[in-house]
Amino acid sequence: MDGVTRRGFLKAAGGAALATTLLPAMAPAVARVAPARRRYAIVGTGIRGSTMWGSSVLSRYRDSIELVGLCDANRKRAELVGRRLGGGVPVFTDFDAMVAQTKPELLTVTTVDATHSDYIVRGLAAGLDVITEKPMVTDEAQCQRVLDAEKASGRKLVVGFNYRFARKHQRIKEVLLSGAIGKVTSVDFAWYLDVHHGADYFRRWHRLRNRSGSLLVHKATHHFDLVNWWLDAAPTDVSAFGNLRVYGRNGPFRHEQCRGCPHAAKCPFFWDITKDRGLTELYVECESEDGYKRDGCVFREDVDIFDTMNLAVRYSNGVQMSYSLNAAMPFEGYRLAFNGEKGRLEIRDHDRQPWTPDKPTEIWLTRSFGEREAVDVEAVSGGHGGGDELLLDQVFAKPSLPEWLRLPTSRDGALSCLTGIAARKSIDEKRLVRIDELVKGL
Ligand SMILES: NC(=O)c1ccc[n+]([C@@H]2O[C@H](COP(=O)([O-])OP(=O)(O)OC[C@H]3O[C@@H](n4cnc5c(N)ncnc54)[C@H](O)[C@@H]3O)[C@@H](O)[C@H]2O)c1
Question: What pLDDT score does 84 carry?
Answer without folding.
Answer: 98
